[in-house]
Amino acid sequence: MKNLFTLLFSLVLSISASAQRxxxxxxxxxxxxxxxxxxxxxxxWLFSPEEVFYKLNENSEVKSFTVKNxxxxxxxxxxxxxxxxxxxxxxxxxxxxxxxxxDPELIQKTTFVQNVVKGKASLFWFIDNNGIVYLYSKDGGxxxxxxxxxxxxxxxxxxxxxxxxxxxxKDFECGNQPIIxxxxxxxxxxxxxxxxxxxxxxxxxxxxFERTAKQKANFVIxxxxxxxxxxxxxDTRIPNPDRTFEFESVISPKFGAEFEAFFPYFGxxxxxxxxxxxxxxxxxxxxxxxxxxxxxxxxxxxxxxxxQVGSRYYLDFGEKSSFxxxxxxxxxxxxxxxxxxxxxxxxxxxxxxxxxxxxxTSYKNRFGGSFGLxxxxxxxxxxxxxxxxxxxxxxxxxxxxxxxxxxxxxxGYAIF
Length: 416
What we know:
Elements: H1 2-18, E1 23-30, E2 35-41, E3 51-55, E4 63-66, E5 70-75, E6 81-89, E7 106-118, E8 121-128, E9 131-138, E10 144-145, E11 149-152, E12 158-161, H2 163-171, H3 178-182, H4 187-200, E13 207-208, E14 220-239, E15 242-246, E16 250-262, E17 271-287, E18 294-317, E19 321-334, E20 337-345, E21 353-362, E22 365-377, E23 381-391, E24 396-397, E25 401-414
Antiparallel strand pairs: 1-2, 1-5, 2-3, 3-4, 5-6, 6-7, 7-8, 7-13, 8-9, 9-10, 11-12, 14-15, 14-16, 14-25, 16-17, 17-18, 18-19, 18-20, 19-22, 20-21, 21-24, 22-23, 23-25
């Protein structure tokens, strides 16, 4: 099983070094207004992209462009990305008491923004750690940020400065209608208003670009079940004379269930936190060579319920395949862990006698770590190899020291 873990680890490293998402037909326009038809790597960005990879055809080398040398690019049927240099408002809603000023705080940026509604009244959006910013243009003119800010009054009430409404009323003949007072600084609400602006201006050919699934900033929680096999290696030492006993390596079943939560601002389903509960039960033994006077064997019997609290990172490879690595803090709850001694005593002219006694027990919780890697198909079926840091099993026994190491391979299935 150690060889399997090593093989999977090498496979993930090898593939992650060369993994590429799908390249889709698109184009980009450089600073000299040259338009290049090409294949562009579609990252389904949540945040505005800083570097975009492309190639001229399936067999050509991969190159890249950035906001410094690209004015515009487009992938497939998604909304076009345009380069914009402007003062962007900070719109994040993490309010502090000192934010009594209702005026938006502006940051100068040169970045890509993505088209949401295309028409005589066009809507764009941008997102980074400072929040979501909506932008607009009229009749294909300059793209301007729509200003907005949440702030706090002295009585700690939260208010909104909807400056964007004034901007739209000023720039569009149809802007000053009752619908503007109901328009919020949110995607669906903004799209509805810009649809109204285009319809009011007689533009029947306007287009609304759907947000791709991987751009949806939803907090996603999933649940899956696991089943697999675990290799247990248990070693002990005695102080006098100093000697190590290596118990038989045992493979035992392991079962568990898991909740996994994804955080969209790290990329859609790329980084998650998980809480997992797993159970296993194992018997190990160590036997001394028989002699004329008898034999001695030690049996290690332990059942373990463990919780894993950790993080997982996914690397997409193709449309449905993903590789992942994970690390977790693992508190173990030993159900009933004992070491027993079986001693066979041979006496002349008598039957052999078996004497069994417990020589060590433990009920205490233990803490350790777990590291794993694996493969997921369509985020539905999972294959994982994991290794546990060595842990102590017994509190008091005839042994000076003990150590349990575990390596597991599990199959998982996502219920939702």
